[in-house]
Amino acid sequence: MGKPIKILSNSSQLLNLLAEQGQLGIPELSERLEMPRASVYRLVDALTHVGLVSPAEDGKSSLGLEILHLANAALRALPEIEVARPELAQLNEATGQTIYLCALRGTSTVCLDWVPGRRVSLLLLGPGGLLPPHAGATSRVFLAFNDELRREVTQRPLERITEKTLTEPSELNADAENIRSAGYSVSDEDVTVGIAALGVPVLDRTGNVAWALSIAGLRAEILDQRDDFAILLKEASARVTQRLS
């Protein structure tokens, strides 16, 4: 790997770490990136000069405001965002719950867009946020319809986030069969205690699962209306797929 590519790679890792962990100091960045502190300091200084990193209190660093400009530009460049946005708003209006549009990023799931529901403070995921590959309604949709991804994910130890998080290959394989049979996933407190979600696949022009829609909220509210919400999600997904194709 050439030096310019290595610098870009290190910069990307550092920005992703700040995005996932929040404010971090040089010692923490150095340890987690497995880089010398002097190298991390130079990298942080360079990224600060271009606005991608911002100094925080106690000598720590956080993401800079320039990230917002880049994020908004990236979202505007994705046609599926504009196509799906009316469906997200309609689902939110019909259910009062938080609605998500997510995509794969490596083996993790990233939130592309959302419409907050009544109790959004209880939900941890927002635009740009990541879900692990094995937990959450949208993540498990991607696992269910992508055998290669599921094999890759289940080859390594998986974190048990709550008592209900599926971590064993046999559990995730059985879950994938249930999701494919039902056409939607059910996340019941596997990410956050007290929170449930339903997820459905969204197909691209080639018929492959490219995105996922979900409804999330308080466990009782989601599960009590599970069948009705699943129908609404499937109908919204079909309309998004149709518009994209």
**What is the CATH C-level name of the largest domain?**
Alpha Beta
Distance between the termini: 39 Å
CATH architecture of the largest domain: 2-Layer Sandwich
Structural class: alpha+beta
Please, what is the CATH homologous superfamily of the largest domain?
GAF domain
The SSE order reads HHHEEHHEEEHHHEEEHH
Radius of gyration: 19 Å
What is the number of helical segments per DSSP (H or I, 4+ residues)?
10
Question: Share of helix among residues?
Answer: 40-55%
Strand proportion: 15-25%
Enter the CATH topology name of the largest domain.
Answer: Beta-Lactamase
Describe the structure.
With 245 residues, this protein is α+β, with helices and mostly antiparallel strands. The chain has two domains: 3-69, Winged helix-like DNA-binding domain superfamily/Winged helix DNA-binding domain (Arc Repressor Mutant, subunit A, Orthogonal Bundle), CATH 1.10.10; 78-244, Beta-Lactamase (2-Layer Sandwich), CATH 3.30.450. Helices cover 50% and strands 19% of the residues. It has ten helices and eight strands. The strands form two sheets. It has a six-stranded antiparallel sheet, sandwiched between helices. It has a two-stranded antiparallel ribbon with strand order 1-2. Strand 1 and strand 2 (61-63) form a beta hairpin. The N and C termini lie far apart (39 Å). The relative contact order is 0.11.
